[in-house]
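Project outcomes to date are best conveyed with an example. Our students and postdoctoral researchers have been running inverse folding experiments weekly, and each run begins with a structure described purely in tokens. The record below, which covers 295 residues, was selected by the lab manager from last quarter's runs and is presented without edits.
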């Protein structure tokens, strides 16, 4: 007979569902348990990574935890993303006050994309003040996929909550992860296809339009998402890719035509010859005239 006590997960929210609160609830529910939660941080995030953090005020985190602890008294607590000293203090106070039987902590310091999740100085304080209060620490490693350590910890929390000894709980969590977890994240990003679409649009319009928002609008995506895609795929911003294409065309026209610099500036939709010369100098560290003379 399964334990009817819920498991409290305290961590951040991942809108893409691969980690955070969403993954905890999904994992615990899939195993037959019941998850209750307190969110520490809201992220602007998708399959390409995190764009923004919005850390909840510590008193809001405290309110969530107390509402759950006072009402349903979970004896197993899983802790993930902590980004502020104030939230850390709330969690430490909660553990001291309610003394849950099992406290599982996943030290989330960096994302799988290498993004820093927790300030360095706070990471040291977590290790010094929070870790000694935990009954199980589940670190993540660099070959793990997004959310894998989180999912494993949620499974371990479920088995511990069932009264299974720690070693056996870890064994079962490993077994469950190997046979049931979806790896990698079970949704498909459109980023590769979108990048190719962007390049096709660029080839059609670079002579008349250099505005990133124009290309984002033509692809029906936010400019910020387009920037994520190009940086992840090519290591460059959309503007840099656009400027590179315009610069290569400018160099080609200077190399292979008798058009004047002013005519080339007009052909590439620059507002003036001076504007074109300033752009060219930035790209090639020389003026168009000097570039042509060297040829």
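After processing, the design step wrote out the following sequence:
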């Amino acid at each position: 007979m399964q334990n009817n006590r819920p498991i409290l997960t305290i961590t951040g929210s991942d809108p893409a569902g691969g980690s955070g609160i969403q993954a905890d609830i999904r994992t615990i529910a899939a195993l037959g348990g019941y998850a209750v939660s307190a969110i520490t941080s809201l992220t602007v995030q998708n399959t390409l990574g995190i764009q923004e953090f919005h850390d909840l005020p510590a008193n809001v985190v405290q309110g969530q935890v107390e509402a759950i602890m006072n009402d349903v008294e979970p004896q197993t607590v899983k802790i993930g993303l902590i980004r502020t000293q104030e939230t850390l203090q709330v969690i430490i106070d909660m553990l001291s006050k309610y003394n849950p039987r099992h406290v599982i902590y996943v030290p989330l310091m960096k994302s799988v994309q290498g993004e820093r999740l927790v300030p360095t100085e706070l990471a040291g304080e977590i290790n010094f003040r929070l870790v000694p209060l935990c009954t199980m620490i589940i670190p993540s490693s660099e070959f793990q996929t997004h959310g894998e350590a989180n999912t494993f910890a949620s499974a371990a929390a479920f088995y511990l909550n069932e009264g299974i000894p720690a070693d056996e709980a870890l064994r079962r969590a490993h077994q469950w992860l190997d046979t049931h977890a979806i790896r990698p994240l079970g949704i498909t990003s459109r980023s590769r296809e979108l990048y190719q679409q962007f390049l096709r649009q660029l080839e059609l319009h670079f002579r008349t339009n250099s505005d990133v928002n124009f290309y984002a609008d033509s692809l029906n995506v936010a400019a910020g998402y387009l920037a994520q895609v190009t940086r992840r795929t090519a290591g460059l911003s959309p503007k840099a890719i656009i400027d590179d294409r315009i610069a290569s065309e400018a160099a080609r026209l200077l190399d292979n035509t008798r058009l004047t610099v002013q005519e080339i500036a007009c052909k590439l939709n620059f507002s003036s010859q001076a504007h074109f010369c300033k752009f060219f100098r930035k790209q090639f560290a020389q003026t168009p005239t000097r570039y042509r003379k060297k040829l």
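The domain at 7-180 is CATH 3.40.1190.20 (UDP-N-acetylmuramoyl-L-alanine:D-glutamate ligase). Residues 112 and 144 are 8 Å apart (CA to CA). The training component of this project remains on track.
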